[in-house]
Write a structure and sequence with these properties.
By secondary structure, this protein is mainly alpha-helical. It has eight helices and no strands. The longest helix has 35 residues. The protein starts with a helix and ends with a helix.
Amino acid sequence: MKRIGNVIVFTIAILYFLLDAVFATVAVPLSRWIGAHWAFARIHRWVLSLRPYPTLLLFVVPLVILEPAKPAAAYLVGTGHALLGLVLLASAEILKIVLIERLFSVSRDKLMSIPAFAWGYRKYSAVKDWFTSLETWQLAMRWSCAARDAVRQTAPKRPDCLNRQTYLAATATTARRERR
């Protein structure tokens, strides 16, 4: 019986980490963009001004609000609204990861000064390290990289008109012509 329980827990952990890895491919670059954007500088300063426990409360808010979206998405999928359920799951998960990643990167030192948070983070990191060291996980990552490389090689090249530098140069030239 204990062995079956271990298999179930292991399967849930695999699915959870895989789901986070999939959504992190979108969420982490989005989080970096938010961090570099000038419009969020005021929020960044406000978060930095908070003490450790209010920061922890702010860190937990996205979890409390967005985590119930997973069962709601499962309900929608189960009742025949698969597209709506998947959209809800994807948007809530990406938003949650973006907010948590951003808050953690801004306030990591303050959060780690809370003993219970530091203990939980060390345990989470140990489980994640163990999980990613498994041969199965490494095989899945190699397959993922091979699939990504295959898509990049077969995807059509981006036209120059969609290149950011070409677009900015053309916009500047057009603006100069309009001023004359």
